[in-house]
Amino acid sequence: MTARTETYALIAQLATRGISISFEDANTLRRAQLTLHRWCELECGDGNNYGSWAIERDDVTNLPYMCQYPHDGGMGRYRIADREAGALRRVTAICKRIGAYYHYQTDPRGCALYVSNEPLPDHNYSHGIACCA
């Protein structure tokens, strides 16, 4: 399935809930979901034979850092772009423009972004339209 096909499928799914959206906005939602999903994966962390790493936010500034933990000890971190905040700004702007609501689900085992014409509570967000293929 191509990105264009996935975007058209998202447009069709949103239309079943009475949400009219342009191709550009639907594509932005789909791409934001990909960004948010990857962000959640990196927050959970990963590793190899030499160390592990994960995105962590600073407790004071709330800025994101990529933190690396070599297995032989120590810790390093470097500042990274806050792609999560950027994606959520784009999603918020689109939902406001089309009169919809969204839910950001941070478990990387599923779709990260759901959209609906009604507010989506934390315990029932899957009643929204998943913005992933």
Describe this structure in a few short sentences.
The protein is of the alpha+beta class and 133 residues long. It is 39% helix and 23% strand.
Provide the domain count.
Answer: 1
User: Order of SSEs, N→C?
Assistant: HHEEEEHEEE
Sheet with the most strands: spatial strand order = 1-2-3-4
Number of helices: 3
- Helix fraction? 25-40%
**Proportion in β-strands:** 15-25%
Low-pLDDT regions: none
N- to C-terminal separation? 9 Å
- Which value, in Å, is the CA radius of gyration? 17 Å
Provide the structure class: alpha+beta
Descriptive notes:
With 133 residues, this protein is an alpha+beta fold. The protein is built from three helices and seven strands, in the order H-H-E-E-E-E-H-E-E-E. It has helices spanning 3-16, 23-44, 83-98; strands spanning 46-47, 51-57, 64-70, 76-79, 101-104, 113-116, 129-130. The longest helix is centred in the N-terminal third of the chain and has 22 residues, at 23-44. The protein is elongated and about 55 Å long. The mean pLDDT is 94.
List keywords for this structure.
133 residues; alpha+beta; 4-stranded antiparallel β-sheet; 3-stranded antiparallel β-sheet; elongated
Q: What topology emerges from the helices and strands here?
A:
Elements: H1 3-16, H2 23-44, E1 46-47, E2 51-57, E3 64-70, E4 76-79, H3 83-98, E5 101-104, E6 113-116, E7 129-130
Antiparallel strand pairs: 1-2, 2-3, 3-4, 5-6, 6-7
